[in-house]
Amino acid sequence: MKSMFVWIEGYLNKARRIFVAGFTLIFLLFITFSLLGGIAGAFSGDEEIDTKDKILYLELAGVVVDQPQSGPSDPVSIILAGDSQPNVYAIRDILRLLDAVANDTNLKAVYLDVDNLSMGGQVFSLAIADAVKKIVDNDIRVIAYTDGLVTSDYLVASQATELYLNTNSYSGIMPSGFSRKREYMQEFYNNVKIDYEIFTAGDFKSGPEPYTRNDMSENDKIAWNAFANPLWDTYKQKMEAGRNLKPGTIQSYGDNFDILAKDEKGDFPKVALNLGLVDGLMKHEEIRDYMIGEFGSEDKDKDKWPEGVSYDDYLSTLDSSFDDEAEDIIAIINVEGVIMTGQESQGTAGSDSIVDKIYKAKNDKNVKALILRVNSGGGDVYASELILNALDDFKSTDRKVYTSMGNVAASGGVWVTTNSTEIWAEENTLTGSIGVYSIVPTLGRALDWAGINVDGVSSTKMGEWDPSEPMPDYMKDLFQSNVDGIYETFVSQVANNRDMEYEEVLKIAGGRIWAGNKAQELGLVDKLGTLNDVIAHVAESNELDSYKVKYYKRDLEPWEVFFEISKNVNLDIPFSSTRKLIYKELNAFDQLVQQNGQLKPISYCSECDLLN
């Protein structure tokens, strides 16, 4: 019997060694081939790519952001995740490519598919749509195909020369506009005997409303409609102009889609065709045959699409927009996502990472000015203040800080701009929301119901109260005074930066959101323009005849460098994983509120979530 156990032990040890050795071999082979492929890809990027008489295939699947971010992660988990990492596109790359295409007479046409592209926000969607329109206006044919589109996707596709919809599409074209829905849970929390103590500064600061109400407040409706309705009008006008539709067609469709669909027995593609939202209906095989019939195919395979160039290949042919040999630098540092302490990751703007970048720019004598590119609805007040302090330190070297606002620069996203020399926004930037709140849950009633009594002693009054007990009045007064004090500081900083009276800012603060053009009228913004407009202005103001632009990024760990190199290997990443990234960004607010149980004041714009 003993010899049998010895044999089993030996067998298991041998099997374990074989398994470990096999896994190690596979891992090393993966690294080796990835590095070789990456290095080869890096060198192959220098090769000239011929676009003569070819189709540019813009089939983008992923998420559009200002600056792709990298955060601390476990390298093993990334390897195991494999293709679940979604594509992330920098908006500047997309616009640079589209601008080049508009002047490329070599291309036969552009094939556009944005079904699986999350546009990232209203400013990005409008910019991409305008860039596609510019290509069409320059007599370059753009053929778009879709399995079904919603508001922002349709805005872009509607600018194409031709737009075709899958005959078998389930949803068709659904430009439903913008909505904002939240779960209001006051009654629920009352039923489960959990109380939320809410402390706010700002009549329009609606972040805590899901905990204190069972419906949307009138102030929240007023602020939301004042921003969303003009934006929706802009979308409709561009859609209708792109498709040569009568004014009012899109709104009428949105208000009567059920009746129109019923008349066609639920056939949404036919409804879209009847309204002129698309040029025709085609199955996947039919659009392929149409492209072959229009542009030919040199391949003997009849199912082969016309020869073309991919987004990545075309982008690799483009030269930098700036002088890479120049010594003078304009630094760009991104604040993108929910502002929190710690390191950055996709969906969060980690103050530690951002502060580190600011100090790197400060210590580089070639940096002549800094542009803070903000695409954030705010977050942790303390983290925002850390970023602001670092910017003050940069300005102490007699160099200027400029702000460029993207889709959203609200609440804490405004806070970090309050020492900028100039603040720029885009016409449809969502900004404002100057307000503060704190949310403190207490479990006193729930524990009483469960028969649990909390008792004990404390050395001081400061340590007496526990969140498992109802909050006493002196603690409520303390929290409210803290929030009021932070709000007063916030308003004062905006007033000082904008050269406005405190009372003047107070009238337009209160947590209310504003569009960029309205914010300029109110004095919260200096000028309207894109990031490129800001760069050009900074160069002119600082008398930089020759300069380059540097986007500061977090320093990568050695293993991260390997993954960056391996990205040059041709790997197809499915869109399904994009949803994970979107959920991660949406869940960042929950991380902000929880903060490991710490009670922190929040300057975050819950009103900034555009749903379409």
TrEMBL record:
Residues 137-285, 394-544 form the Peptidase S49 domain. GO terms for molecular function: serine-type peptidase activity. Gene3D superfamilies: 2-enoyl-CoA Hydratase, Chain A, domain 1, 6.20.330.10. One of its GO terms (cellular component) is membrane. CDD domains: S49_SppA_67K_type, S49_Sppa_N_C. Keywords: Hydrolase, Membrane, Protease, Serine protease. One of its GO terms (biological process) is signal peptide processing. The active site is at K205 (proton donor/acceptor), S411 (nucleophile). It is found in: Membrane. It comes from the Bacteria. InterPro entries: ClpP/crotonase-like_dom_sf, Pept_S49_pIV, Pept_S49_SppA, Peptidase_S49, S49_SppA_67K_type_N, S49_SppA_C. Belongs to the peptidase S49 family. NCBIfam families: SppA_67K, SppA_dom. This is Signal peptide peptidase SppA. It comes from SAR86 cluster bacterium. The lineage of its organism: Bacteria, Pseudomonadati, Pseudomonadota, Gammaproteobacteria, SAR86 cluster. The gene is sppA.
